[in-house]
Amino acid sequence: MAATKRRRRAASSSASKKKARLSSSGKRAAKPKVRALDERLPETARLQASLRESIERDIADRIEAHQREVAIIKASLRREGQQPPLVLLAHGDSWFNYPLNGNSVELPPRDTDIIAHLKKMGSPPPKILNISHYGDATTDEMGLPKQQRLIAALRNPKNWLTGKPDAILFSGGGNDIAGDPFIIYLDYKDSNSGGLDAERFAGRLASMRASYLDLFLFRTRYAPAVPIFGHAYDWARPMQPHPPCTGPWMLPSLRFAQWNIDEGTLIIHDALKQFGDMLAKLQGGGYDFTVVPTQGTLAKEDWANELHPHPKGFGKLAQVFLTALQNRFQGRI
Prior knowledge:
The protein is of the alpha/beta class and 333 residues long. It has eleven helices and five strands. The N and C termini lie far apart (102 Å). A five-stranded parallel sheet has the order 2-1-3-4-5. The model is unreliable at 1-32 (pLDDT under 50). It has one domain: Rossmann fold.
């Protein structure tokens, strides 16, 4: 009998403890949550993931805004039967996506790049779906994720008036050379060379050329008969001013290899000339590719830093693009 009572008290005590673990709503208390995967990643990885998400949101917002504009134009054309504007696809680097005012950060950010200016030029002004992002090299721009993004944009009928863009604007090559890897292509001053190592830089040019050739193949497959417009930048020069978030891109490597600013200016000029010559050969290769003649457009005071002009300089470059488009599409822009 005593043993039975002890068993009953033990069972009662166990039941009381179980009830105590229940919340006032009758539900069991929540188990400690396992931290989300991104919380367990290193800080650098979390920042990179956050940046990728921010980029994707930004581009998605641009696409949505572009589609609203195209829808308005389609409705207008049905009512009035007027000549439609050019509808272009832009893909590139910071010359097509520069959210700074020279070296200054503005809030809210304001794009001051070529595409931002070109959208306001011409009669009528073109409609441009801009999926560019600053910092991309040609190997990034023609890498798998960016090609998939291009395909999605090209296949969405909401983006175009006639099923595809009238032209593709492409900006690529500057980030393949500039930045910390620039040192790879430099000889040391005391080696009695001209600055650029011919063999190593030829290898970099070959890589950029491969990216452009892949761009042409991509166009033939996913946007047949659509012309491509590119450019070879302008005569950049080493300098110290740069945005608070990045740069300088070339001066540190030049100083490391013992070249001064005047000598470095000649080295950069040489690199850009070789890049321009390579694009010129592609222009004559039957690829329906136009090199917009931007080299020689900017004055010294137009440059904000080593890679980017002030807004006024970007406006000058956009004017050169406008002329090239007007020559190809007479009466459309």
